[in-house]
Amino acid sequence: MLHRREHPAEPIAVAEKTGGEEPMGTAGDETSSVTPSLPNCLGKPEQCSEKATPVKTSGALTDVDVVKLRPCEKKRVNFKDKLYLAPLTTCGNLPFRRICKRFGADVTCGEMAMCTNLLQGQTSEWALLKRHESEDLFGVQLEGCFPDTMTKCAELLNRNIEVDFVDINSGCPIDLVYKKGGGCGLMSRTKKFEQIIRGMNSVLDVPLTVKIRTGVQDKVNIAHKLIPEMKNWGVSLITLHGRSREQRYTKLADWDYINTCSKLASPVPLFGNGDILSYEDAMQARETGVSGIMLARGALIKPWIFTEIKENRHWDISSGERLDVLKDFTHFGLEHWGSDTQGIEKIRVFLLEWLSFMCRYVPVGLLERVPQKINERPPYYMGRDYLESLMASQHVGDWIRISEMLLGPVPQNFSFLPKHKANAYK
């Protein structure tokens, strides 16, 4: 990394001294305060002394050692008014993100990656950070609870992968993560949280973002206390899911609270997340003053929601068009996971996980009241054709039949149990 001088047009001052010339860190050069003074006895080792090198270094001294990026020199990302596809564990894989990009997602993020697994070099964990060329604004999400390991991991990512931002997961509600102090646990461990953010910020060349919830306990919001602190710690974007950890999906997201927090976060952009399944939901969300919107379950139920929001319309998508979307997913999966037996079965499992959400979609042409609400259980209905009825089924056996239409017969004794069981129905 080359250091820029304040006055590049001016010649570098060189003072003649006995035994050699003065190095570049001369008076008036802004690096002089941090560059260790070098001995002016180059070529005459017998004249060198301990006093000539007050700062001891190990190995060759380079610009990287003495010049760090200032906050204003870091890469900047314009998040304003973007549609952000949430980092979705299991379902937010690269082929699914490609589908969402086609439908108009602006920002994508890799699945949550465990910091300790990355540092141990686990291939499966590093695969979560892979980026497709269509993802023009892409970040990765890290989960961890210790400042030293999170900072080391951020440094490793900074050197080895190309991303536009790094996100800290401080909203994951699952017990495995929470009980060890990660995910939502960070929200109540503010000292550790601050050390993690400051440490990661010091080694990253890209913006650092954070995803949080309203709090840990139901009806005990703490995000509004944390957000002003995070502004001082140096985060570039805050995403707020309008529910607490204990609440999970049992009640509607609190967009009034999100609105309050967006004002506290200014000028740092704050994205709102929760219960968006139509362009009307998105319009109401934007009226709260958030800088942008994150979509999670809404994108899983109907990935074409990005198109609907951008075009302000309801898309009465046909069953044939939906099947084409699933075909594209399988093609992308073959490219990503391979076309051998192991690759095909991996695609099948991820497809079935996605279908466990997609089956909740009710075609616009069959709705008694538009738009569909994410917290209302879909009514039983007969589709306008056989395929539409099949796609509406809540039975695993019917999801498997759809997978066989795209990937061939399942192996003998095949069974499937979806990982995600977040209903959010009244």
- Helical percent range? 25-40%
Q: How does the major sheet shape up?
A: 8 strands, parallel
Low-pLDDT residue spans: 1-53
Helix/strand-derived category reads alpha/beta
Overall geometry:
globular
Q: What value does the Rg take, in angstroms?
A: 26 Å
Element string (H = helix, E = strand) = EEHEHEHHEHEHHEHEHEHEHHHHHH
Number of helices: 16
Order of adjacent strands in the largest pleated sheet = 3-10-9-8-7-6-5-4
What is the number of strand segments? 10
What is the first-to-last residue Cα distance?
57 Å
Average pLDDT: 86
Portion of residues in beta strands equals 5-15%
Domain DUS-like FMN-binding: 85-314
Cofactor: FMN
GO molecular function: flavin adenine dinucleotide binding; RNA binding; tRNA-dihydrouridine47 synthase activity; zinc ion binding
EC number: 1.3.1.89
If you had to describe this structure to a student in words, what would you say it looks like?
- With 426 residues, the protein is α/β, with parallel strands linked by helices.
- The chain is built from 16 helices and ten strands.
- The protein has helices at 63-66, 94-103, 115-119, 123-126, 147-160, 175-178, 190-203, 223-233, 255-265, 279-286, 297-301, 305-311, 319-337, 341-358, 386-391, 396-407, and strands spanning 16-17, 20-21, 83-85, 108-114, 138-143, 165-170, 208-213, 237-241, 270-273, 292-295.
- An eight-stranded parallel beta sheet has the order 3-10-9-8-7-6-5-4. Strands 1-2 form a two-stranded antiparallel ribbon.
- α13 (319-337) runs antiparallel to α14 (341-358).
- The chain is globular, with a radius of gyration of 26 Å.
- This is tRNA-dihydrouridine(47) synthase [NAD(P)(+)].
- Residues 85-314 form the DUS-like FMN-binding domain.
- Pfam families: Dus (PF01207).
- Its EC number is 1.3.1.89.
